[in-house]
Amino acid sequence: MPALDFKQEASELKLTAPVPSTRQPAAVYLAGLSEGSQATMHHALDAIASLLTNGECDALTLDWSLLRYQHTAAVRSALMSRYTPSTTKKMLCALRRVLQEARKLRLISLEDYTTAIDLPRIDTPPQKLRGRALSESELAALVDVCQTECSRPIDIRDLALIAILRGGGVRRTEAVNLELRDFNPNTGALEIREGKRKSYRTVYLPTAALSLVSEWLAIRGRSPGPLLCPVRKGGFIELRPMTADAVLKIVRRRGKQACVDEFSPHDFRRTFCSDLLDAGTDIVTVQKLAGHASPVTTAKYDRRGEEVKRLAVERLSIPSSKHRSAK
Fold first, then answer.
1. Does position 67 have pLDDT exceeding 60, yes or no?
2. Phi, psi for residue 226 in degrees, rounded to 5
3. CA–CA dist 144, 148 (Å, integer)
4. Most-buried pick from 221, 233, 250, 324 (CB within 10 A)?
């Protein structure tokens, strides 16, 4: 990505000496993000720092406290010419948050901070919703490829994973962070201790999912540690956490085996929200179960399609006086 025309200032924007991470605005901001968001926002900040310094700085070597309106306005224009509006908004959000941390650390004055973040709004045109919901037949096919007469430990583990993703609507990072102590086999409760933005919530598995997780635990054992574990050749279970990337690979592999059209682990969450809404669950309850900050976010997960809207308007009546008795 070509740099902006700040060649004379590039060296001045670079930190003159290393600073503790607790005093580096970008480091403070990134430390407060979830593991899944850190990489994305770190990459965004690296790109912005490179733009401003002709490739001399990254997120952790740029002196963010020196940025002023001329810098942020130029960054906004450059990003808009290179990325979609939604991506530009996300990157500018990271920029604003870093400057906010610089303000809290008293590295930048309130006036300079306020001016630097006072950028024109970016309107995002309506876009097709990402992802999809899985049908009942697709879910059944995924279960069937794991649930054979000679199911191996890895098959039973994958069944438990699918049950948790589908039945609990959890993120893949949340699934791999689950500990045995987080699961209550009597109530089906799962305690999500490290959700997005370090949030905490409790979700509940339906009876069908509960039985699949219990089958896995019968093999895994009751030793403290991760709820879901890697399974090596020969069925050897390693009592250590899985990775979020491993979940992605498992889902893709099982999808191919089941001849299910391409989908992502996050599509289980979209299915979870859509099915609960379709069953008449109020959106606030679905929001709490999904761990969304707002019902607005939950509404974006609704993948029930046009048929739901068509059926909704069928309930509307149009009063007519034609059938009234003549006086």
1. yes
2. -60, 140
3. 7
4. 250
Does 67 lie in the same domain as 156?
Answer: no
Q: Tokens 């949340």 appear where?
A: 174
pLDDT surpasses 70 at 225: yes
CB under 8 Å to 191, separation ≥6 — which residues? Answer: 181, 182, 183, 200, 202
Residue range(s) defining the domain that contains residue 19: 7-116
Closest CA to 257 of 94, 133, 146: 146
User: Distance (Å, rounded) from C-alpha 95 to C-alpha 48?
Assistant: 8
Q: How far apart are CA 210 and CA 196, in angstroms?
A: 24
The domain total for the chain is 2
SS3 of 324, please? coil
Asked if the structure places residue 156 within a domain, the reply is yes
Q: How far apart are CA 185 and CA 189, in angstroms?
A: 7
Alpha carbon distance 156, 147 (integer Å): 7
Structure-block tokens of residue 117? 């973040």
What DSSP assignment string belongs to 226-292? BSS--B-GGGPBP-S---HHHHHHHHHHHHHHTTPPP--THHHHHHHHHHHHHTT--HHHHHHHHT-
Structure tokens at 214: 């219990």
State pLDDT tens for residues 180-204.
999 999 999 999 987 776 788 999 9
Which pLDDT score is estimated for 280?
87
Which tokens hold the place of 273? 């929200």
- Which residue intervals of the chain are DSSP H helices? 7-10, 25-31, 35-53, 69-82, 85-104, 110-116, 136-146, 153-168, 172-177, 207-220, 244-257, 266-278, 283-290, 295-299, 306-314
